[in-house]
């Protein structure tokens, strides 16, 4: 029995989920920076180690700077999600092995790598913005590279190797098809 109907059904669900994420994630970033002064401090400092953080409100100028800098990792993330959605679009149509799949896997791998490095830049900029209101000597620039970034880079490497393997499989399949 073929798994193709299950693949199509599950891929349709993932296609819908990723389509929703493509709307929700950018919206989250807009809401985060628009209402940064109204959010609880625990939410703001969730991923920022800018201690000591002094209670202060970010000016509109710093909110805009923060939002613009957030577009860097967001663009890499959205690019990766668009590629993954395209992949599931192929799967839900029953197309499971083509050159486009290889290209999508490679693009997704590159998006993951870009997302890691742009996220480091973004988090560093956030630490500066959030500690800029601190007295001199207590302002912080925090540059971090930890296990989530390493994990993402490993996944990116695995996805890239899978793309190579799929390409070799595709080449072998095409050679067999042309052999009489």
Automatic annotation (TrEMBL):
<feature type="transmembrane region" description="Helical">
    <location>
        <begin position="12"/>
        <end position="35"/>
    </location>
</feature>
<dbReference type="Pfam" id="PF11188">
    <property type="entry name" value="DUF2975"/>
</dbReference>
<feature type="transmembrane region" description="Helical">
    <location>
        <begin position="62"/>
        <end position="82"/>
    </location>
</feature>
<keyword id="KW-0472">Membrane</keyword>
<dbReference type="InterPro" id="IPR021354">
    <property type="entry name" value="DUF2975"/>
</dbReference>
<keyword id="KW-0812">Transmembrane</keyword>
<keyword id="KW-1133">Transmembrane helix</keyword>
<feature type="transmembrane region" description="Helical">
    <location>
        <begin position="112"/>
        <end position="130"/>
    </location>
</feature>
<protein>
    <submittedName>
        <fullName>DUF2975 domain-containing protein</fullName>
    </submittedName>
</protein>
<feature type="transmembrane region" description="Helical">
    <location>
        <begin position="150"/>
        <end position="167"/>
    </location>
</feature>
